[in-house]
Amino acid sequence: MIVGLICLGINIYFVSSMGVFSSLLVFGVGYGLAEVALNVEGSSIEQKLGTTLLPKFHGFFSVGTLVGALSGSVAASLHIPILYQFLAISVVFVLLVCMVYRFLPHGTGKTEKSRNKRREKHTTLRMEKKVLLIGLFVLGMAFAEGSANDWLPIVMVDGHEQSIVAGSIMYTIFVLAMTLTRMCSSYFLDRFGRVAVVRATIMMAILGVSIVIFGSNSYFLAFGVVLWGIGAALGFPIGLSAAGDDRENATSNVAAVSIIGYTAFLVGPPFLGILGEAFGIRNALLAVLLFVLLSGIVSSITRENTSG
């Protein structure tokens, strides 16, 4: 991942499109593997401590996004070359990894295969069905999150005729709402359970997206963006927590659900763009409502595993 990041800066600096593609590929592979490992280990810690942690872990992704955007803006305003920016990020990343690595217990990530083959065969079919339904749930929620990440500023500028600055502010509000929700969600998840919290946030997402589609007043739109951010914040991490309930197959289950989620991030925004060209960008957001409703229908699949 670090190699890909450094090469990306070099290839952007020398304007090599094929080099940029290759660097992004290397970076993406490293990032994807690290993402799955972090989610699996986070899920394992959740199980051992008996408390909800993954949403808070994902909250730090949002914090990193805000820090990266802010530092990138400062670097751009100071006219620092992109190569130096990427090199600085790589150095900071290496230092952070070295600091954290020495605190990891020996053997972290290693698991023993179950010797109970009969039980394994008996549960395989049931778990595969559960993972598919969790994937369907994550698909809808990741689509709601990814659509806002890629299209919310454009919806505000082109759909609601807001200024570019206002569009940027709306997106910042969305990210802040997501970050705070993820950071503060553990108490509610432990007290009320995944399903109740998920359904409440899905209702907020539906209301928020509806306001963004049909609203007009700037303050009302900002309120809708807050609801959208709260509503989309917990779907992905809760889906990963549910996928990790089966400890024997946690790695493959979390990996499968992650792939489905990132597929929604990858395919969803272009799909929304096609709909926007045909029906208008605000009307295209109706697709987001449909996907969130789909997640709501299958939300009971995220229920905690109490079978031990």
TrEMBL record:
In alphabetical order, the GO MF annotations are: transmembrane transporter activity
TM region(s), chain numbering: 12-36, 82-104, 125-144, 164-184, 196-214, 220-242, 254-275, 281-302
Q: Which UniProt keywords apply?
A: Membrane, Transmembrane, Transmembrane helix, Transport
Pfam assignment, any one? MFS_1
* SUPFAM superfamilies listed in its UniProt record: MFS general substrate transporter
Instruction: Report the leader peptide range.
Output: none
Q: In what residue span(s) does the Major facilitator superfamily (MFS) profile domain sit?
A: 128-308
This entry carries the following GO cellular component terms, namely: plasma membrane
Topology in the lipid bilayer: Multi-pass membrane protein
Subcellular localization(s) per the UniProt record: Cell membrane
**CDD domains noted in UniProt:** MFS_MosC_like
Protein name, UniProt field: Fucose permease
